[in-house]
């Protein structure tokens, strides 16, 4: 485990001050829960501790749920607004995290900014309409942010559009404590579907052609859609799972998730 050290540590009381200090330092790192442990460089001129920057909140509004970057995962998991949204997929995924320290100390900002290829949460969030909020840089869609090169940004939070949607997800692991080697999320809305695959081992990505085919033609083509998702995305050999195994497993996974999302949407969303 890497230990982050710094010549100076700053604990600002707002995100604007945090970002200004970060930009002025020759080398700097944001400390946000367990996020700092991912960095390969272990010493910085400045460590900006975000614990007092006012970024811990869950704000349910008329048309969106806004979550601050420093909100711990456990707090998101137990939020009634999150539990009642999209079939509770976000809360369920956090509960599935075997490492209780990650649940307790990990933060939303750490999940978003780390862009981890084997994250379970990112595919679920990507299946929804999510915007990432950036200090001094406005907002951008989560999909654009994940595939955008580093730009010295400070993630201050995300906004999730409130909508009638149900997301089904699955993460394949050898053991419950292992990092998943394939992750999928399928979201159903009244007018569209979205299929996402992560752990390819590349970043979570939307299977756009498969999503459009399912949206246009419906459940009757779910088998073709499952194969299309496997064919249109890139997969690789990594860890205990090969490229061919990931492709084959994606067909099975997407087929199953389409059925689960359809059942969940009609059982829990339509009846509301």
TrEMBL record:
Q: Which domain of life is it from?
A: Bacteria
Q: Where are the transmembrane segments?
A: none
Which InterPro entries does this UniProt record tie to the protein? CO_DH_flav_C_dom_sf (IPR036683), Diverse_Substr_Oxidored (IPR051312), FAD-bd_PCMH (IPR016166), FAD-bd_PCMH-like_sf (IPR036318), FAD-bd_PCMH_sub2 (IPR016169), Mopterin_DH_FAD-bd (IPR002346)
Q: Name one GO molecular function term.
A: oxidoreductase activity
> Could you tell me which residue ranges the FAD-binding PCMH-type domain spans?
2-165
**What is an example of a Pfam family matching this protein?**
FAD_binding_5
Q: Which UniProt keywords apply?
A: FAD, Flavoprotein, Oxidoreductase
Q: Which Gene3D superfamilies match?
A: 3.30.465.10
Task: Spell out the protein name for this chain.
Answer: FAD-binding PCMH-type domain-containing protein
The organism of origin for this protein: Megasphaera elsdenii DSM 20460
Q: Source taxonomy lineage? A: Bacteria, Bacillati, Bacillota, Negativicutes, Veillonellales
